[in-house]
Amino acid sequence: MNNSIENLYKKGSNESSTASLDNLILNAAKQSCEENTSTEGSRKWLYLLSTAAVLVMGISVVFNLQNQNSEMKVSPESLDFSIIKEDLRTKIVTAPPLEPHPRPQKKRKPITPEKVNQAGLLGKIASQKPTIQLEQDSDTPQIENKPQIIFEKNLLEESKVKAIESEETSAGFSQNSDNVMVTGMRRAAKVLPDLNKENNLSPEPIEINKLEQLFKANNFKQAQELLEKLKRKYPSYDFTRYNN
Amino acid sequence: MTERSDEELMLAFKEDEATAFNILYGRYKDALYRYFLRQIKNESICQELFQDLWMKVIYSKSNYQVKATFKTWLYTLAHNRLVDWYRRNNLEQKAFQENTEDEVDGIINWNPEDELQTKRLSKEIKQSVGKLPFSQREVFLLHNDALLTLPQIAEMLGEGLEKIKSRYRYALGRLRKDLEKM
Hints:
The complex is a heterodimer of chains A (about 240) and B (about 180).
Chain A: H1 2-12, H2 19-71, H3 86-94, H4 113-119, H5 122-127, E1 131-134, E2 147-150, H6 153-170, H7 177-199, H8 205-216, H9 220-233
Antiparallel strand pairs in A: 1-2
Helix pairs in contact in A: 6-7, 8-9
Chain B: H1 6-14, H2 18-40, H3 43-59, H4 70-88, H5 92-96, H6 115-131, H7 134-144, H8 150-157, H9 161-181
């Protein structure tokens, strides 16, 4: 009985939606799909655009911060004093101008020959007599005397360093040994030639070499002239060995 | 090629495959239209509700998840839309009145080969369905038009299975009684 009712109902149920309604709904579905695909494309652009905008903003903020740091140094003339209370204003106006904090300067005493002698080294050099060696030239059959002056280099270098060390310690500075070595070497190289000139201690090795070369070349006239010149320049130096 | 299930089609539509929606629409449009037509008995309002429902399906596709069958989900939306319409038109009390008359047994003299008689009886039944109380009519339509089983209807409406069975039994009794009168 129930089945017959159900069957009768199903046989008579054939109503359907209108074609226009169907088209309306199907078009709406199609449109929603197309909109989604187009919005996905625009979303990609939006993502790229926003990333670029963030980058630009970040860079500009960094540049601004850098500029602000450089502009932080404001001159007192540009300050608006009207916003400051009267009593504070007078304090600011009457305050002495700010000056950069003075750095403690090294007080150096000039290097005097006494100081050098205290170190007891240049005296050594001065008192040192250059050794003259006579070498035989194997190419020439005639025996010829070739005077050669050899300074003790180590002693010279040591003297340069120690002289500067004594200078530094006397001025009241304490530095480590490495710095002393480096700065000492540099300064000694500058100072020593002047010291030699001032004190007329000994001739330069170049001058001695030149003298020797003139003697070797039997250019006695020029050699004598130079010798006289050197004698005048370094009166305390012993040139007797060149007299012959 | 095997036929795709409703859920597969809906997921394809979610991925912007418009043809998937066309297939789904073809499968359910008639039954759903009749469901509204029998409930409302006014063709223009029925079309409005029918269109609203499918628009809701279209615009909620991005949120669709396979929790229940597509058919259950679709008819749940339809039921909610219908209840809203009834409430908006102050027809709630009248519509939801339950008719608890005893089931009437009877015999209908129906010869399926007699086309004229079949047509006449079908027309009568459709009219009688329209006279059923809302709750009974809904169960009858969901079972016969939407082809949902009684447990599916119970799940969809959030009611007990026995209650749904009872409503369906009463609906059939009322229809039989109407036919006997003829």
